[in-house]
Design a protein that fits this description.
- The structure is a single chain.
- By secondary structure, the chain is mainly β.
- It has 2 domains: about 150 residues, Immunoglobulin-like; about 100 residues, Immunoglobulin-like (Sandwich).
- Strands 4, 6, 7, 10, 11 and 12 form a 6-stranded mixed β-sheet that branches.
- Strand 6 and strand 7 form a beta hairpin.
- Keywords: Signal.
- It comes from Streptomyces sp. 900105755.
- This is Calcium-binding protein.
């Protein structure tokens, strides 16, 4: 019997308890002799989730099973989850569709799967470090869990703007550079200001490909940025945010200023 692992939405959260079939609580359930390894989520990159929509996340992994087990005796899926263990976590994601597995030996499978991470199923407080893990089901739906297979970041998408004025400007005069740092609010489905964050003001001279940091500015409580600098030569101004555990790094598109 093929068992499909699915995720159920409960009060806006992904319930990992939905993985556990009723048979899992039956007396006499056994632990499968199966090990997950070499699990790579999103090619090793952070999972950045916008304010709306769903992010498709590729996962590759290896499953090693006892020689006494046939591949028809179990079903093994990868999961990512927030917390210390799969069984106790309130938030996590497993594949909505069957993984694709290839037998590389009599006891080893090489597998691929896709996780659909939806903004609608997340809350802001769980942005940051999640864990990788796996669940193997036997024919009766009894699960065997493997926790803490490595960390993965699930982050709130960030946006950064910049505007340098006046344009054009006379050499030696003051340029005012404004901007805004925002990030996805998963609960409202909109972008909101990211306050009290250090952001670098950078400059790239016309004809150059390299930005140089001029100063560091803090965002206001609403994510607003404002500072001044002196006009010297033609070039591009941008703000650059290094990122945090919960929010990825982002650079504003450079704003060109003509110095006359």
């Amino acid at each position: 019997m093929r068992i499909r692992a699915t995720v159920a939405a409960v009060s806006g959260a992904l319930a990992l308890s939905a993985f556990v079939a009723p048979a899992a609580h039956a007396a006499g359930s056994t632990t499968l002799d199966i090990t997950f390894s070499n699990m790579t989520v999103n090619a090793g990159k952070a999972i950045v989730v916008p304010a709306t929509g769903t992010v498709k996340v590729p996962v590759t992994y290896k499953v090693t099973h006892a020689a006494s087990l046939s591949t028809s005796d179990f079903y093994a899926v990868p999961v990512i989850y927030h917390g210390t263990s799969i069984k106790t976590s309130e938030y996590g994601v497993a594949p909505d569709t069957d993984p694709t597995c290839t037998n590389t030996s009599s006891t080893v499978q090489s597998c691929k799967a896709t996780l659909n991470v939806s903004r609608a199923d997340l809350v802001n407080s769980i942005a940051g470090t999640w864990q990788k893990g796996g669940i193997a089901f036997d024919k009766d739906g009894n699960p065997t869990f493997q926790d803490a297979m490595g960390k993965v970041l699930v982050q709130r998408q960030s946006k950064l703007t910049v505007n340098a004025t006046p344009e054009p400007v006379k050499k030696g005069k003051t340029i005012t550079v404004t901007g805004s740092l925002t990030r996805a609010n998963w609960e409202s489905g909109k972008y909101a200001g990211y306050g009290s964050q250090s952001v670098k003001l950078q400059f790239r001279k016309k004809g150059s490909s390299t930005y140089t940091t001029l100063k560091t500015v803090k965002t206001s409580s609403t994510g607003a940025l404002k500072t001044t600098t002196t006009a010297t030569v033609d070039g591009y101004y941008r703000y650059s945010f290094a990122g945090t555990t919960t929010t990825p790094a982002v650079n504003a598109t450079g704003d060109y200023v003509d110095v006359q």
